[in-house]
Amino acid sequence: MEGTTVLTIAIPVLVALAALVLFTTARRRDSDRALSDDASPDEAASPRSSRGREVERQAVLARTSSGTELARADSPPPAPYVPPDEEAIGVTRRQFLNRSAVGMMVFSLSGFGAACIAFLWPRLGGGFGSTINVGTLDDVLASISENREPFYVPEGRFYINPYPPDAVAKSASVYGPSVMAGLEAGVIALYQKCPHLGCRVPWCLTSQWFECPCHGSQYNRVGQKKSGPAPRGMDMFPVTITGGQISVDTGEVIDGVPIGTNTTGQEAEGPHCVGGSSEH
Questions:
Q1: What CA–CA distance (Å, rounded) separates 278 from 280?
Q2: What are the residue boundaries of the structural domains of the chain, listed by start?
Q3: What is the pLDDT of residues 187-208, one digit of tens each?
Q4: Distances in Å between the alpha carbon of 279 and those of 51, 73, 226, 230, 240?
Q5: Which pLDDT tens digit goes with each residue over 25-74?
Q6: Which one of 170, 200, 216, 226 is least enclosed by Cβ atoms within 10 Å?
Q7: What fold characterizes domain 131-249?
């Protein structure tokens, strides 16, 4: 019974599917026939597969028929070369920045090199390290007496102070010949640098001494140490008097006199500018 039931259901389904296929095929044929009626007789007579070949053949005939050839255009002669205008071209922003950076670098290196050469180049004349003409002996002594302070020569970094004539005899055993020539003429040239640690030693107007502000070393009018940590008196330069003109050779630094030397007996004449007490 079950097999008969299956056949009973399957046969009508198959008949319905066959009828649907026949109906669809008939509709497609009617559509093709309608399209064939609208086309030209020549197109209807030719098979569908040959229509593309015919189109290509017609295109080739159209290209190769007389009157359709392309005319060859004559190329114009080359234009003459004209060099570009530099002002019109100008400089790009990148080129300007690059050239500016390179220029600044070259300028900086040139300045640094020139400074190094100037520092290392020996002085041929004038300034510290050479013989300096200070002026006449009378003018220098008059300036010292009027201002009550040493005659300072900044380019030579030294002071000139008078040396008492009555102390020259006691000085021969302490000072060397290069310094004695100036002492005998009545002056002494003292290096401004403190022998302790190299500070510049200023003049104290009230005490009439040289007093170092860095560590308190004190020296009398002719540079002999009176107190403080300095290992000796102020260093000196050779002095030459020629025709009344004072010349100081700053190329030769002479060590100051030993501690305890006091050939002039000059003591502080007033309050000190730097704290400390004198040593006798």
A1: 6
A2: 10-40, 91-120, 131-249
A3: 999 999 999 999 999 999 999 9
A4: 135, 116, 5, 13, 32
A5: 777 666 655 555 554 555 444 445 457 778 778 777 777 766 666 666 67
A6: 200
A7: Rieske Iron-sulfur Protein (2.102.10)
